[in-house]
Specification:
By secondary structure, the protein is an alpha/beta fold. The protein contains 16 helices and 12 strands. The chain folds into 2 domains: about 180 residues, glycerate kinase, domain 1 (3-Layer(aba) Sandwich); about 240 residues, Rossmann fold (3-Layer(aba) Sandwich). Helix 1 packs antiparallel against helix 11. Keywords: Kinase, Transferase.
């Protein structure tokens, strides 16, 4: 393959993975029949707008529901809204929550509390819901939650540790939305963006029992060296903020189903690669760990492949982390992974890699134009050298976006309206075409 052919194939595989996880594909087959009363749609996360659009269309066209029986609210990331009539869609901050998410969560709780026994609360949950639905516990203000979220994100803590804290500082997460809706039935359809598809971790599990405790939340802050503000420490020491556990009456009339998961996206990407004659090797479906360290491991695998009869793709999913030590850098774990590959594969011929977040945003400041990741190959090194750039220096500053903006290797997709975690593909060919 030529360098351009490698890049084109990587992008086709990534796009196939994203398409397989879109709400228009995975939500409709699982939507329940309407009850005697109303369908109250409550959606949160980066795919919430698309979920609301799909659900509204389904109930209008198949069952003829009007605004008297179909209502709700979807809270999604800025730039991820979709057109709807009766299910309102609002945009809010991610990954750091904002005032719009605060109001959206309060309104969602109010709608759940209004549900009667003849109604159905339909919760459509996607990754990003933890930040989009922000309802601080008593005594905690938005600024304190924002500061805690920022500190955890900078610490390199994995998503389950971050969410154990979020769930115990919230009036909606950790099963509390189900408690608000009780005794109305609650059906949750979730698009998973977390390793092992744990329902209690997806968007911090607003409709399922929470296996974590206040003690777990305190331990997470201690482990990742996050010094909590006084209000945060007080809330995490207050037994009233313990989340509902298995057996709680709040869950007696609830159901939960994961309708799309990271593996579905990986399989779609794999199929695209195999159709192109590539030998695909999965090196981890739900990887976690420091992005640059995982990149080093994958670079070593690539160098050790030996003579090839046909191209080989090392593919992985999961969510990597970045422990931020630099100042003023930009970029998320996919770009840091790609930048580490550029460093670790310098001088190695015939390769290309794509690392991207299926939601279309890898780090960034919460803008719809944030990069989704990066596409790199030996040409990246050549362009960097021509500009006097060193990958190692940019890694030290955690400034992968800055590097790739200079080399022209940023992956831009815009909002994809779904989120099933990351796709990383390292393609190794026998020789340049």
């Amino acid at each position: 393959m030529t360098p351009d052919e490698r890049r084109t194939l990587l992008r086709r595989a990534f796009d196939a993975g994203v398409a397989a996880a879109h709400p228009a594909i995975c939500i409709p087959p699982h939507l329940p029949a309407p009850p005697k009363g109303r369908v109250i749609v409550l959606a949160a996360g980066k795919g919430a707008g698309a979920c609301a659009e799909v659900a509204e269309k389904f109930y209008r066209e198949k069952y003829g529901l009007g605004p008297d029986r179909l209502t709700g609210l979807a809270v999604t990331r800025h730039g991820h809204s979709r057109p709807t009539e009766w299910v309102k869609v609002v945009e809010a901050g991610h990954p750091v929550p904002d005032a719009a998410g605060l109001q959206g969560a309060a309104d969602s709780i109010a709608l759940a509390e209004q549900a009667g026994p003849d109604d159905l609360v339909l919760a459509l949950i996607t990754g990003g819901g933890s930040a989009n639905w922000v309802a601080p516990a008593d005594g905690v203000d938005l600024a304190a939650k924002q500061a805690t979220t920022k500190a955890l994100l900078r610490s390199g803590a994995p998503i389950d540790a971050i969410n154990s804290v979020r769930k115990h500082l919230s009036k909606i997460k950790g099963g509390r939305l189900a408690r608000a809706a009780h005794p109305a039935p609650v059906v949750t359809l979730a698009i998973s963006d977390v390793p092992r598809d744990d329902p209690s971790v997806i968007a911090s599990g607003p409709t399922v029992p929470d296996p974590t405790t206040l003690a777990d939340a305190r331990a997470a802050l201690e482990r990742y060296k996050v010094q909590p503000q006084a209000s945060i420490a007080a809330a995490l020491a207050d037994p009233a903020n313990e989340s509902p556990k298995p057996g709680d009456p709040a869950f007696e009339n609830t159901s939960f189903l994961v309708v799309s998961r990271p593996l579905d996206a990986l399989n779609a990407a794999i199929a695209t690669l195999e159709e192109a004659g590539v030998d695909v090797r999965i090196v981890g479906e739900d990887l976690e760990g420091e992005a640059r360290e995982v990149a080093g491991e994958h670079a070593a695998l690539a160098r050790g492949l030996g003579p090839l009869k046909k191209p080989v793709a090392l593919i992985s999913g999961g969510e990597l982390t970045v422990t931020i030590t630099g100042e003023g850098g930009r970029g998320g774990p996919n770009q840091e992974y790609a930048l580490a590959l550029v460093r670790d594969l310098e001088g190695f011929p015939g390769w290309a890699a794509l690392a991207g977040d299926t939601d279309g945003a890898d780090g960034g400041g919460g803008s719809p134009s944030d990069p989704a990741g990066a596409v790199v190959d030996p040409g990246t090194t050549e362009r960097a050298r021509a500009k006097g750039l060193e990958a190692a220096v940019f890694l030290t500053n955690n400034d992968s976006t800055g590097f790739f903006e200079e080399t022209g290797d940023v992956l831009l997709t815009g909002p994809t309206c779904t989120n099933v975690n990351d796709i990383r593909i390292l393609l190794v060919d026998s020789a340049d075409g």
